[in-house]
């Protein structure tokens, strides 16, 4: 990996995480309206996908300099669990409701996001090793 690639990866990962986390907070705290959204997806599925993305991006940010570890994966899952709990606890401030099953979906999504990142980086390292190049 070249120095330029590493620098771009660092800024891209951090920027993506920051934008995603802000959009997640806005989306989960947007006051409910009388009109329903134009799509009909399960609330739990939305929580699962959102926290999968958050965990994936957070793992990416924490793995820029060194390959991901299981200890770091546990840290990311813990951070996402705490973020999901705080998210649910603060939703009543904007007229939304707190649901324990939403938090369960957040936790499951965080585990899935970390697992996908770990799987992809493991596969990339194996590919790079067989190709004779150094990978993440």
Query: Tally of extended strands?
Result: 0
Shape: elongated
Distance between the termini: 8 Å
List low-pLDDT spans: none
| Sheet/helix structural class | mainly alpha
Radius of gyration over C-alpha positions, nearest whole angstrom: 17 Å
> Counting H and I runs of at least 4 residues, what is the number of helices?
4
Biggest pleated sheet? none
Rounded mean pLDDT is 85
What oligomeric state do the depicted chains represent? single chain
Succession of helices and strands: HHHH
State the helical fraction. over 70%
How many distinct folded domains? Answer: 1
Sheet-strand content, in percent, reads under 5%
Describe this structure in words.
With 136 residues, the protein is mainly alpha-helical. Helices cover 74% and strands 0% of the residues. The chain has four helices and no strands. The protein is elongated. The model has no long low-confidence stretch (mean pLDDT 85).
How are the SSEs ordered, and which strands pair?
Blueprint (H helix, E strand, L loop, with lengths): L2 H27 L13 H20 L7 H21 L9 H32 L5
Helix pairs in contact: 1-2, 2-3, 2-4, 3-4
Task: Briefly summarize what is shown.
By secondary structure, this protein is an all-alpha fold. The chain has helices spanning 3-29, 43-62, 70-90, 100-131.
């Amino acid at each position: 990996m070249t120095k330029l690639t590493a620098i771009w990866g660092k800024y891209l990962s951090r920027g993506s995480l920051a934008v995603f986390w802000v959009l997640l907070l806005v989306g989960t705290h947007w006051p409910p309206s009388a009109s329903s959204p134009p799509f009909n997806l399960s609330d739990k599925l939305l929580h699962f996908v959102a926290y999968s993305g958050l965990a994936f991006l957070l793992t990416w940010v924490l793995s820029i300099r060194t390959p991901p570890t299981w200890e770091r994966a546990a840290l990311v899952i813990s951070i996402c669990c705490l973020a999901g709990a705080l998210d649910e606890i603060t939703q009543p401030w904007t007229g939304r409701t707190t649901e324990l099953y939403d938090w369960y979906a957040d936790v499951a999504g965080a585990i899935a996001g970390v697992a996908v990142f770990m799987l992809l980086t493991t596969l990339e390292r194996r590919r790079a090793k067989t190709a004779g190049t150094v990978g993440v």
